[in-house]
Amino acid sequence: MIFASDSLAGKHIVVTGASSGLGQAAATYLATLGANLSLVGRDETRLGATLSGLGGEGAHAVFAADVGDFGTADELVQRVVTERGAIDGLFHSAGTSLVMPMRLTKQTQIDELFGAAVMGALGMAKALSRKNAMNDGGSLVFMSSVSAVRGRRGMVAYSAAKAATSGMVRALAVELADRRIRVNSITAGAVETAMHRSFVESVSDDLVAGYRDLHPLGFGQPDDVAAAVAFLLSDASPWITGIDLPVDGGYAAK
Fold first, then answer.
1. R_g of the chain, CA atoms, integer Å
2. Residue 124: is its pLDDT beyond 90?
3. DSSP state letter for 220
């Protein structure tokens, strides 16, 4: 661990998608830095498993909810604030992936994809824009992808959702700047989560090798993203806002 164990001490941070993948990895990482975490996810049992694995000195709580809807995400934030107080930081990691040729993509898949990645993010942003919900000087971090800036076959809908996230981040950063609230996103490459492993196991070895070759430093690990999240949520990044931070093993450099 390269951060001091009290880097986030006393800060109330909300992590969505905390029951698995990058959300779970970030929650585990942030807890070791002393954050007080409010963990959000759809599966209460898996959220409980995340909670039980947390270290650090912070106080934590879980909120089982599906934040794939504008109104629901807004209401969830209001509930968290009512029960646990104003928020200092957010890592919005909730979302799904979709690899599908555009000609075969269905409306239901679009709705699910844009739900958490876009509508849920907008709902969280609306709620946290209220003065009583988020403390001045706080930080919002949204999960994006290199797919927002690089095109690949089968990624049209996913790229569109992540590009929407990036656009939201830039505008929201300007809107909240007078309160010194920073808004950024992480444009990640392929990270070896359970979702990634499921994809790798469903395709040929040659395809996997080709996909890995797109990343000069190889596939990433969850803690690679978690460390970037910690940096953007911490007081080490007070003059960084409105950016997409590439954490992609060099993917966007090629």
1. 17
2. yes
3. B
- The residue from 29, 158, 211, 251 that is catalytic is 158
Going by C-alpha positions, the residue among 27, 235, 20, 203 that lies closest to residue 135 is: 235
pLDDT in tens, 162-203: 999 999 999 999 999 999 999 999 999 999 988 778 777 777
Under 8 Å between Cβ of 109 and 54: no
* 158 assigned to active site: yes
- DSSP characters for 30-62? HHTTT-EEEEEES-HHHHHHHHHT--SS---EE
The values of phi and psi at residue 61, to 5°, are -150, 160
- Tell me if the pTM is above 0.90: yes
β strands within the chain, DSSP E: 12-16, 36-41, 61-64, 87-92, 134-145, 182-188, 244-247
Burial class (CB in 10 A: 0-12, 13-18, 19+), 192: middle
HSE-CB for 83 with a 13 A CA cutoff: 15
